[in-house]
């Protein structure tokens, strides 16, 4: 991308653009979810012509997916094990990711 206003041409360019908007580090599971949301923005049925709209769509998808993920993992016993995109994640009961 030559200028900030240009639409990213790959999901990873979009991911880097969106990630710059976060004020703090995000958990690796959320990074994976965000990457998936960025990939989805490049489906042929979603022809974005504006970086703001594209970013907004990714953030809405990310907020929805994150809330669903947290809800599905809540109250699952002493810990939650999750295999997502080739990575294993283990969250002990009471961890911040399960309570936020």
Keywords:
two-stranded antiparallel sheet, elongated, 4 helices, 100 residues, 12% strand, alpha+beta
Summarize the helix and strand pattern as letters: HHHEEH
The strand order across the widest sheet is: 1-2
Rg is 15 Å
- Characterize the largest beta sheet: strand count, sense, and whether it forms a barrel: 2 strands, antiparallel
**Shape designation:** elongated
- What's the total number of strands? 2
Q: Which spans have pLDDT < 50 for at least 5 consecutive residues?
A: none
* Sheet/helix structural class: alpha+beta
Number of DSSP helical runs:
4
* Helix content, binned percent: 40-55%
- In terms of DSSP E residues, the strand content is 5-15%
Mean pLDDT: 85
Cα-to-Cα separation, first versus last residue: 35 Å
How would you sum up this structure, described in words?
- The protein is an alpha+beta fold.
- Helix content is 49%, strand content 12%.
- A two-stranded antiparallel sheet has the order 1-2.
- It is elongated and about 45 Å long.
- The N and C termini lie far apart (35 Å).
In short:
49% of the residues lie in helices and 12% in strands. With 100 residues, it is an alpha+beta fold. The mean pLDDT is 85.
Task: Chart the SSEs and their pairings.
Blueprint: H1 11-19, H2 28-40, H3 51-73, E1 79-84, E2 87-92, H4 96-99
Antiparallel strand pairs: 1-2
Helix pairs in contact: 1-2, 2-3
């Amino acid at each position: 991308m030559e200028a900030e206003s240009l639409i990213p041409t790959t999901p990873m360019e979009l991911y880097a653009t969106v990630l710059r908007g976060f004020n703090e580090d995000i958990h690796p599971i959320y990074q994976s979810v965000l990457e998936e949301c960025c990939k989805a923005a490049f489906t042929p049925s979603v022809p974005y012509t504006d970086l703001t709209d594209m970013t907004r769509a990714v953030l809405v998808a990310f907020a929805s997916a994150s809330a669903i993920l947290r809800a599905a993992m809540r109250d699952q016993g002493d810990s939650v094990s999750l295999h997502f995109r080739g990575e294993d994640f283990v969250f002990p009961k009471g961890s911040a990711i399960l309570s936020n």
